[in-house]
Amino acid sequence: MTYNDFTFESLGEGIEICISDEHRFGTDAFLLADFSAGRHKDICADLCTGSGIIALLLHKFYKPQKIYAVEIQEKAHEQLKVSLERSKIDTIQPVLGDLNDWRSEKELDLITCNPPYKINNTGAKNDSEAVSIARHEMLCTIDDVCRCAKKNLKFGGRLCICNRPERLCDIMTAMRASGIEPKRLRTVHKNPECPPWLILVEGKKGGKPFVQIEKPLYVRSADGGNSAEMKRIYGLP
Questions:
Q1: pTM for the structure as a whole
Q2: pLDDT at residue number 127
C-alpha cells in the first residue's frame, strides 16, 4: 500500500524517522528510551512501537545487538520499514502483529512499551481510528503488555513502561500478576511546581519486592527552556 503523507525527521547520526499524520512521536518516547538504558549485549523488544521512535533511539544511544519492534497497525509498521531502509539499520526487526500472539525467537533482556494511556470507553476518541487505537486500550491493555513480557523476558529481564500517573496502580498490579516485580519508579514534571504528567516504571521478571523511587525529572528550567537533564536526553549541547 502507498501512503502520501510520509515526512521525515532527523534523529542525528544518520538516522531518519518516517512520520505521518497518525503516527508521530513526543517527549515521552525520549524519556522512556533514556529510562530503560539498554545495553550493547541486550536483545530487546519495543511493544506498541508505532513509528518505531523508541527502537530507533535505543539503537542510536545504546546499540543493543537486536531490537524487535512490534506493532499491530500496518501503516506504522510500514513507516518503520521505510525509516530503517533510509537509515541503513539492520539490527531492528519490524514485526507486524498482535503482541498477544507474538513470541520472540530468543529470550529478551529488555522490553520497552509506550502503551495506550487511556482505558477503553473513557474520554473522547479521535476521528481517526488509528489515533484512537494508539491512545485508548482498544487493542492492547497494560495487562496484555505484562503478559507478553512474562512470555518473552528471560529471568531477571526488565520491562520498562511509561504512562500517566493515574495508571500507576494498574501498572504495578499487572506487573505482579505476571511475575514481574516493580523495581524503579520515576515521575516526570514540567517544573518543580507542577504535579507529574508522566511516570516511568521498571519491573524485573522474578525480582524480589523492593521498589526504588528515583528523584523527579523536570522537563523545563527556570527560564522556560529545556532543563539540563532534558538536553542530555535529547542529545543537545
A1: 0.93
A2: 56
In order of 1, 56, 96, 159, the CA distances from 17 in angstroms are 19, 8, 18, 24
CA 190 to chain centre: 20
Model pLDDT, residue 120: 65
Those residues whose C-beta lies under 8 Å from the C-beta of residue 169, and which sit 6 or more positions away, are none
Cβ neighbors of 26 (< 8 A, separation 6 or more) are none
Least confident of 29-43, 67-81, 129-143, 200-214: 129-143
Say how far apart CA 232 and CA 51 lie, in whole Å: 23
Domain covering 7-181, topology: Rossmann fold (3.40.50)
User: Is the separation of the CB atoms in 44 and 110 below 8 Å?
Assistant: yes
Check residue 29 and give its pLDDT: 97
Q: What is the DSSP letter of 214?
A: P
The helix (H) or strand (E) run that includes residue 169 is helix 168-177
DSSP H stretches of helix in 2-139? 27-36, 53-62, 74-87, 129-135
Residue 155's Cβ-count burial label (10 Å; 0-12, 13-18, 19+) is exposed
Sequence spans of domains, the chain: 7-181
Contacts of 138 (CB under 8 A, 6+ apart): 116, 120, 132
User: Three-state SS for 57?
Assistant: helix
Distances (CA, A) of 221 to 53, 160, 189, 225, 232: 25, 26, 11, 5, 13
